[in-house]
Design goal:
It is a single chain. The longest helix is centred in the first third of the chain and has 19 residues. Helix 2 runs parallel beside helix 5. It contains five helices and nine strands. A hairpin with a 5-residue loop joins strand 1 and strand 2. It has a single domain, classed as Glutaredoxin, CATH 3.40.30.10. By secondary structure, the protein is of the alpha+beta class. The chain has a three-stranded antiparallel β-sheet with strand order 3-7-8, with helices on one face. A two-stranded antiparallel ribbon has the order 1-2. Pfam families: AhpC-TSA (PF00578).
Length: 183
């Protein structure tokens, strides 16, 4: 069943965190944030919504990093119930796909709860002051990737944030698999 997060709460301050990355380093929000802002993505290995657009996520992350936006992905799924989302498998995916950003493990799920993450993928775009400016979708993709010429909504929004400090007022919520909470 597909889940959509709530709309953007403009100005909401990014909660800080420190999480282990697949690169062997611990990362805080301060470490991730770029001079123009930060993009925090909740993703996972097994979700068909993420898998269908992973190449686009990687493309947009690279381009946003070049614009001064820091990027990180967080996996908060219960790896006991979903072994594809284990830390070892996260590391394998980050290595095989050449992630240019930290892929972080939220084993306690505390960070996902602090962000009120709802689904994978769930995108949180912050300006340089750490204020939420985008909580929308990557593009028109769902379980299947949209056409290659689909409007790059996340990229365009975060480019605007990099240039002006503010995100677009019109945003379409992301859609994906629910976060797999521990029971």
């Amino acid at each position: 069943m597909a889940v959509s997060p709530p709309v953007c709460n403009f100005g909401w301050k990014a909660p800080d965190f420190t999480l282990p990355g697949t690169d062997g380093r611990n990362w805080s929000l301060k470490d991730i944030a770029g001079p123009k802002g930060a993009l925090i993505m909740f993703i996972c290995n097994h979700c068909p919504y993420v898998r269908s657009v992973l190449d686009r996520i990687l493309r947009d992350a690279r381009e946003l990093q070049s614009l001064g936006i820091g990027v990180a992905a967080i996996c908060a799924n219960d790896a006991t119930a979903y072994p594809d989302d284990s830390f070892a498998n996260m590391r394998a995916l980050a290595d095989s796909e050449g992630f240019t950003f930290p892929y972080l493990h939220d084993e306690t799920q505390d960070v996902a709860r602090a962000y009120d993450a709802a689904c994978t993928p769930d995108f949180f775009g912050f300006n340089a002051a750490g204020e939420l400016q985008y909580r929308g979708r990557l593009d028109a993709s769902g379980r299947q990737a949209a056409s290659p010429d689909a409007r790059r909504e996340l990229f365009e929004a975060m480019k605007l944030v990099a240039e002006t400090g503010e995100g677009p007022r019109e945003q379409v919520a992301s859609m994906g698999c629910s976060i797999k909470w521990r029971t």
